[in-house]
Amino acid sequence: MGPAGGGQAVAQLGVVAQPLDRAEQRLFALRDESANAQLRHITASLQSNYEHLTDRMERPFEVSGIPSGFREIDYYTEGFTVGDLIVMAVLGGMGTVFGPVIGAVALLVLEETLSGITEYWQIILGPLFLLVVLFARGGIDGLLAGMRHG
Questions:
Q1: How far, CA to CA in Å, does 122 sit from each of 5, 52, 138?
Q2: With contact defined as beta carbons under 8 Å apart, do 98 and 92 qualify?
Q3: According to the per-residue pLDDT averaged within each range, which of 56-60, 65-69, 118-122 is highest?
Q4: Average pLDDT over residues 144-149
Q5: Residue 91: CB partners within 8 Å, gap ≥ 6?
Q6: Distance separating alpha carbons of residues 136 and 99, to the nearest angstrom
Q7: Rounded to 5, what percent of the chain is helix, strand, coil?
Q8: Using CA atoms, how far apart are residues 67 and 91, in angstroms rounded to an integer?
Q9: Which helix (H) or strand (E) holds 138?
Q10: 89 CA to centre of own chain
Q11: Are 107 and 88 in contact (CB under 8 A)?
Q12: Which of 7-11, 68-72, 107-111, 124-128 shows the lowest per-residue confidence on average (mean pLDDT)?
């Protein structure tokens, strides 16, 4: 290729580079728009959290999660989250009537006991839950049934 062929190659690069540059600029613009849309000034966040906490303080007996049906339990737990219910069912034993009830009692007793020992009680409860999932497939109810048939 001589000097004339080199000029054509540069011209072709220019033809390809311009649309690539425009596409890149559009992508950067989209990124900047979405980043700015998600940003929120800290004052607005703090005000929102303060209002939520003030509202909760004005109604201390209202349950923020799923109510258990027992006022004393709801007072301590503020209601259950969906995650709590799943842990209760798996811990106690799924597929049985009493498994989730056993799991609920076990979870509440473990939470109360461990939280009295350390503020990092979740670090202890997590591995315990993992051991039940790995080695006691039927949960606590399954372990008790295995011990009865034994």
A1: 70, 25, 22
A2: yes
A3: 118-122
A4: 79
A5: 102, 103, 106, 107, 129, 132, 139, 140
A6: 12
A7: 75, 0, 20
A8: 20
A9: none
A10: 18
A11: yes
A12: 7-11
